[in-house]
Amino acid sequence: MDCLESRGQRKPEVRPCCPNCGKPGWLDGWRFVKLQAKVTLAGVLAWMAGMWRRRARCPNPDCPVRGWTVYEEQGYSHRTFPPAVAAAAVAELLFRGETALADVAKHWGCSRWTLVRWVEWIGGLVELAVLFKVCWTCDPSGMPPPAYRAQQDADSSGPAWASRMALAGSLILLFEKLARLLRDQGVPLEEGPGLGAFLRHQLDRFCRVSWLTKPSPPLLFDGLWPGG
Ligand SMILES: [Zn+2]
Predict the structure, then answer these.
(1) What separation in angstroms does the CA of 134 have from each of 7, 45, 120, 125, 212?
(2) 24 C-alpha vs ligand 1 centroid, how far in Å?
(3) Which one of 112, 150, 170, 192 is most buried, by most CB atoms within 10 A?
(4) For residue 167, what is the enclosing H or E element?
C-alpha cells in the first residue's frame, strides 16, 4: 500500500514501486510523449504537449517485470486521449443526445468517428452484470441485488446505437460508483472520471493496458480493496 501511495503522489524524487513485486525501482531513462489530452476537474479539455515520462527498472532479478513507465496524473499508455477524456466525452454525449455528436466531438477535439469508437470501446470493457456485481459486493446496502442482466440482443447485426449508448452510459455510472467506493476504502485512485481513474489503477497496479484499437486483457477486480 505504501508503494501505491507513493506512486499516487508521483513526485519525481520518489522511487516508484514495481507494479508486480512492489520493490522500489530505479529510475532509468526517459520516454518522450508528443501529445496527450487530459480532462480538468472543471470538465474542460487540456493538452499536455512535448512531455517527458520517466522509465523505471525493477531491482528484483526474479521479477518478470523489467521496466515500466511512470505516468503523471491522467497519463496513459499509447493514448493521445486517455480513458478519462473518453469517459467525459461519452458522458457528455449521453446527456446531449446523439444529434450532438459533431458538437461533442468538436468540444473534445476529436473526430466523430473517434467518439463513436469510444462508445463501442466502453461497452466492451466489461459485462454490465459483472461490474454491477462488483459494486454490489463492495456496497450491498447501497444497491439493489444483482438481478441486473446485461442487455442481450438476439439480432446478429448487434444492438442499435441507442442500446450501445445506454450500455456505455450504464458502465460509466457503475465505474463512477466503483471508483467512489474504492476511494472511500483508501485505494489511491487519481481524480477525475471514475472509469479513467479505475483503468489507470489497472495500469499502475497490474500493468494492464486497455487498448482502443485492439483486444485488451480482462479487467481485474480481485483484491482491489481490503478484504475484497
Ligand atoms: Zn518487480
Answers:
(1) 25, 30, 22, 14, 23
(2) 8
(3) 192
(4) helix 161-184
| CA 88 to centroid of chain Cα atoms | 11
CA 60 to ligand 1 centroid distance, Å: 5
Cα–Cα dist 16/24, whole Å: 6
Other Cβ atoms closer than 10 A to 80: 16
Measured CA to CA, the distance from residue 32 to residue 52 in angstroms comes to 5
Closest CA to 3 of 20, 21, 19, 17: 17
> For 34-86, what is each residue's pLDDT tens digit?
899 999 878 889 998 888 999 999 999 999 988 999 998 888 998 999 999 99
**Residue 98 Cα to ligand 1 middle (Å):** 45
C-alpha cell at 207: 500493468
Overall pTM surpassing 0.70 (yes/no):
yes
